[in-house]
Every structure is written in structure tokens, then in C-alpha cells.
Amino acid sequence: DAMVIQNPRYQVTQFGKPVTLSCSQTLNHNVMYWYQQKSSQAPKLLFHYYDKDFNNEADTPDNFQSRRPNTSFCFLDIRSPGLGDAAMYLCATSIPPTGWGANVLTFGAGSRLTVL
Amino acid sequence: AQKITQTQPGMFVQEKEAVTLDCTYDTSDQSYGLFWYKQPSSGEMIFLIYQGSYDEQNATEGRYSLNFQKARKSANLVISASQLGDSAMYFCAMRAQGAQKLVFGQGTRLTINP
Questions:
Q1: Distance (Å) from the alpha carbon of A25 to chain B's nearest alpha carbon
Q2: CA B66 from chain center: how many Å?
Q3: In contact, A66 and A19? CB cutoff 8 Å
Q4: What phi and psi, each to the nearest 5 degrees, are found at residue A53?
Q5: Would you call B100 and A50 a contact, using CB atoms and an 8 Å cutoff?
Q6: Of A1, A44, A92, B95, which is least packed with CB atoms within 10 Å of its CB?
Q7: Cβ A97–B35 below 8 Å, yes or no?
């Protein structure tokens, strides 16, 4: 089945120790997103790629970076994790929203980050 | 700017009853789409139903229907004949036509009691 796979599902890191989360997709979607979801809160968009074009949200801290080496893979790098970065990180994909249509986002199962 | 409001932090419903989850939105866009997602405790966001702002009929997908009232800017999710497996967080979300960004509400935690 075509899907979005996130690794690792659970990541524990120490304060200030860099961490990388990965996302892969077999849907061949042009757009890939990274959302941050803290406990009992709404998912918050960090950034997204439209093909190789990177789009950063204005309020995304510089501590968060992303790479998309090819259509299938996207990485989220947290350079110096703080306690406030503990959250679920959700990757999603979609086709570009051209014309009129749902262009549903397909999500992975998420990577839960714990910062000690 | 777009804003989604879900006023029910939690709801408790008996199995087999129908349940309505509220969602109101605010936008200056004329064309937009409204989405509902389900998030079980495992964490994955599962797409349930979609309504376009120019769709004249309310969307339905199996046991899910969307009660869309454009003038009131509301897009409530109705789940008929609830099941234990419906227990989860439910998020209402919105995207302007042609935009990449999907904006989420705060969510409603639904618990189905046997």
C-alpha cells in the first residue's frame, strides 16, 4: 500500500543533542509537510516543500531545519533540542492544490520526541 | 488569516448513539475547503471527510456527514451509530483554495462508552 512512513516512531534525546527525524513516501506526492504537535494541542505547521521549493513558516524557530534530497524522502533536523521541543512530529504529503479539489493531506504515524 | 474553533474539549457518548462535533471557522477567503481528521492514541491523523465552500450538498462518507452552514461559518461533523473504535481526538481543519497550508482547530476528544 502506498503510504507515509516516519522513523523513528519514538526518539529520546538529551538537551542540546541534535536529532534527525525522517519521512518517506510512496505516493509520489509533490508536497511534503512537517507539523509539530505538542500534548493536547493542534498540529502546527513548521514548513513544507513543494518539490524542491522550501517554504518556512514565519514563526518556525531557526533551531528547526529540513532537507528533501528527493521526492520520496524528507528530513527534520532539530539542531539543539530544548525541553520545549518535546512533541509529536507529523509528516504529511499531498498533491499540489491545483484547481478545485480536496487535495487531502496523508499523514504518517508520527515521531514522538522526548527531550531529557 | 484563517482560524478554526472547536469549543468542545471533550465529549462522552454512549455506543450506538449519534454525536455531533462542533467546528466554526473564520476566513476572508471566498474559496476554501474544510476537513475533518481523526487521531487515535497511536498518533496517526486519519482523513475522514471534506467539504468545499462551494459544494451545495453536505458531504457524507459512510457514518460520517458534515453539517455545513456557510452563513454561520460552521462545519460540524456528525457520526451516526457511534462505535467504541470511534474514541479518538477529532480535528477540524481548513485550507484556502490553492494554498498549501492546512490550519487545524484545537480538537475534541471523543470517548464512546459501552
A1: 15
A2: 7
A3: no
A4: -80, 120
A5: yes
A6: A1
A7: no
